[in-house]
Write a structure and sequence with these properties.
Length: about 240
């Protein structure tokens, strides 16, 4: 690892699944009789704000019953101990990385425990239910919504993420399907600029063939071992 100085890590649902994060999908992939992909859209918010807010209220409340697992804790240790540059990019909207202690990170799909004002763009912490029509503390508009990137919206911080990926020496994907863009394209960007690439996943993803190496197993087992190796070998 002596030639590795800048690391970018992408995490997906697989890292939080071991903490018991609920999928909120019932039989047939439905929630209250609707496809989740049809609930989490700007169109759904305009059509039935109560339905959309209820979906995220339930997910937000569920966070109180889960805790970070060994993989979250290991990545926080890497954050604290890595002397080079590092960016943790998560597709997850839970706060388990932060609770474990990670700081050099970005939520590309938003955060459950945050509210966004659709009128002025202000965002801030929000831990309880968010009824439709909740007012923004900054501009007063009754326009607060979940601070979540809905299907069809642009993920957050894409310019900063792509800059970090293009400049890294090592790109690592943990617990992702490799099928959701733009995140699924990060490995190609990293390879284009000469980075080493590693996948840690429960099973081979849709993009496994693009990685230099793939290790299969649970994140709770793979990530702590990998972090220990990286920290032991850092320049």
């Amino acid at each position: 690892m002596t030639d590795i100085r800048n690391i970018v890590i992408l995490t997906g649902a697989g890292i939080s699944a071991e903490s018991g994060i609920a999928t909120f999908r019932g039989p047939g992939g439905l929630w209250e009789g609707q496809r989740v992909e049809d609930v989490c859209t700007p169109e759904a918010l305009a059509r039935d704000a109560g339905l959309v807010h209820r979906f995220y209220d339930l997910r937000r409340a569920a966070l109180a019953g889960v805790v970070p697992n060994a993989a979250h804790v290991a990545l926080a240790a890497l954050d604290a101990g890595w002397r080079g540059e590092m960016l943790l990019v998560t597709q997850n909207v839970d706060d388990l990385h932060e609770r474990a202690g990670s700081r050099r990170m970005v939520h590309m799909h938003g955060e459950l425990r945050s509210a966004l004002c659709a009128a002025c763009g202000d965002r801030g912490p929000h831990f309880n239910d968010l009824p439709p029509g909740s007012r923004c503390a900054v501009c007063g508009a009754a326009a607060l919504r979940p601070d979540i990137v809905f299907f069809g919206e642009m993920p957050y911080a894409m310019e900063a993420i792509e800059t970090a990926v293009a400049g890294c020496d090592l790109f690592v994907s943990i617990g992702t399907s490799g099928a959701v863009y733009p995140a699924a394209g990060f490995v190609q960007l990293a390879r284009h600029y000469g980075a080493a690439t590693l996948e840690l996943n429960l099973e081979r993803s849709a993009g496994s063939g693009l990685f230099d190496a793939t290790q299969l197993g649970t994140a709770g087992n793979l990530v702590p071992a990998w972090v220990e190796e990286v920290l032991a070998g850092q320049p």
